[in-house]
Amino acid sequence: MIDWDDVVSSTYLPTLKQLQYLVALHDYGHFGRAADACFVTQSTLSAGLRELESLIGITLVERTRRVVRFTPTGEKIAEKARRVLREAEELADLARAAGKPLSGEMRMSVIPTIAPFLLPRILPHIRKERPELKLYLREEPSAAACESLSRGGADCVLLALPYACGDVDCEVLLEDQLMVAFPQEDGAPPEHVTADLIDPEKLLLLEDGHCLRDHALAACNRPELRAHATMLGTSLHTLVQMVDNGLGVTMLPEMALDAGILDHTRIVARPLEGEHTAREIALIWRRNSPREKDFRLLADLLRSAAR
Fold first, then answer.
1. What percent of the chain has a predicted confidence (pLDDT) above 90?
2. Which part of the chain is the HTH lysR-type domain (predicted)?
């Protein structure tokens, strides 16, 4: 027997897709970027939002040529939609967790100072050991990766600690020693390099947004370095080219050296000695996630592959 009250009420419920479009527009503040994040065309996203507004009879977004502005009600509904989508994600996670361990789809964000050096070593191992796992990867800086995890855009993150990433659980995979890279033209550096030997005027670091910069400065424990360090590099490869051309010195993670980042250069690298001179590479995920068992299995797999 059909309950017509249920049929009528469900007719006016927003779809998860419409809520996804709304949250993406709220996050990015731009129709084009929001559409890219949802893997749809801009016209599809715009039409979906208009359908949502028509469905609930309220204007959620004020559209102008230059600005996307949410109405006060639109702001409230966007935040509620974010919670609804999170609940839907957790529902899907429960279903996946009940199936075969470490199988199906998983979205993992990886920071740029790990991705090009560690992934080539571990991905073949994962494909061999867990062919049923479809691991979708996204490279993004630490802050963006943590935001993706919080919003539900990522299931887990391969990150370097210490880094504040909200309410998360983690498994440490390995320690990654910080190395000081010198141009060969400066002569042979000492075998034992301590922070007091680094010239603040010559130190080249990554720009803001990369946690490796903060790890390097914390390892040196010299406040004047934070004030004087030249923060120019957008990537470790850029910093290597600067050092190779005699523009200064920099700090590199040992995994980058292992991956051959100094090949065909005239750079000499030495370990930085002292306290807190290594970062911890860890897999993190949202606390109390239904897929915690999967993430711990993945951490074991990553740890094994990295060794």
1. 31
2. 14-71
Which of 58-62, 191-195, 224-228 comes out lowest in average pLDDT?
224-228
Q: Are 205 and 214 in contact (CB under 8 A)?
A: no
Q: Which of 246, 228, 244 is nearest to 236 (CA)?
A: 244
pLDDT of 4 reads 40
Structural domains of the chain, ranges and CATH numbers in brackets: 4-94 (1.10.10.10), 104-307 (3.40.190.290)
d(CA 183, CA 240): 9
State residue 275's pLDDT score: 82
Tokens of 9: 């009420």
| Residue 218 burial class via C-beta count within 10 angstroms: exposed 0-12, middle 13-18, buried 19 and up | middle
* 3 state DSSP class of 2: coil
DSSP H helical ranges for 29-138? 31-38, 42-56, 72-98, 115-129
76-82 contacts at long range (C-beta below 8 A, 24 or more positions apart): 77/22, 78/22, 78/23, 78/26, 81/14, 81/19, 81/22, 81/23, 82/23, 82/26, 82/151
What is d(CA 259, CA 262) in angstroms, rounded to the nearest whole number?
A: 9
- Between CA 92 and CA 6 the distance in angstroms is 24
pTM exceeds 0.85 for this model: no
Q: What gap in Å lies between CA 54 and CA 48, rounded to an integer?
A: 10
Measured CA to CA in angstroms, residue 259 lies from 115, 146, 237, 256 at distances of 11, 26, 12, 5
Question: How far apart, in whole angstroms, are the C-alpha atoms of residue 159 and residue 302?
Answer: 13
Q: Is the pLDDT of residue 2 over 90?
A: no
Residue 73's identity, in one-letter code, is T
